[in-house]
Amino acid sequence: MAEQKIGTGLKLALEMGPIAAFFIGYVMLKDRVFSIGGTNYDGFIIVTAAFIPLMILTTAILWKLTGKLSRMQIATVILVVVFGGLSVWLNDERFFKMKPTMIYALFAVALGIGLARGQSWLQLVMGEALPMKPAGWMILTKRLALFFAFLAIANEVVWRSFSTEIWVNFKTFGLTAALFVFFMAQGRLMAEHGDAPHDEDEPGQNGTGV
């Protein structure tokens, strides 16, 4: 399927919508308990059960509209299904809380493997959207691998040490804000190593020197 462009607002809604819906659902149902088939499920488990198909649906829509999914998006959906499904099946919220840890740890390891091979796998994912010289990509990849490792550790500390409500707020706002701040902080790196495309009509670029 050929890659297609969609509006930034729609893309953001499809990517962030399920997270926003999870947070709203949790706030509404966190103090309620539902009896299904003789088993009691708290609001967190019910919201998790709803989040899984919503995540699959929005990802499928994104794929249908754009014609492609990144490896990160595919990995995220798989881990949501696996760890969210385990939480619902075993009625144990701990598995879903582990999901961000596994996602960020997986990304950190994947980027680290690429670096060990002298490659920036991040460039393969974001290269078209962010033109930058190879040296810049290597630096950004190293920083992001370390940052993902930090986020994995931070998630483990928060979900193991604090209440479910604090973890939900951390997951919804803390992790999102941390990623935003990280990429904003890379502005200088991107400016120094930016690889702007050359204009074919510039002197010397068309073979005539005119």
From TrEMBL:
Q: What does this protein do?
A: Plays a role in cell envelope biogenesis, maintenance of cell envelope integrity and membrane homeostasis.
Domain of life of the organism encoding this protein:
Bacteria
The protein's name is: Inner membrane-spanning protein YciB
Membrane topology per record: Multi-pass membrane protein
Q: Which organism is the protein's source?
A: Szabonella alba
Q: Which Pfam families match?
A: IspA
**TM helices/strands, residue ranges:** 12-29, 41-62, 74-90, 102-122, 134-154, 166-185
The reply on keyword tRNA processing is no
**Which InterPro entries does this UniProt record tie to the protein?**
YciB (IPR006008)
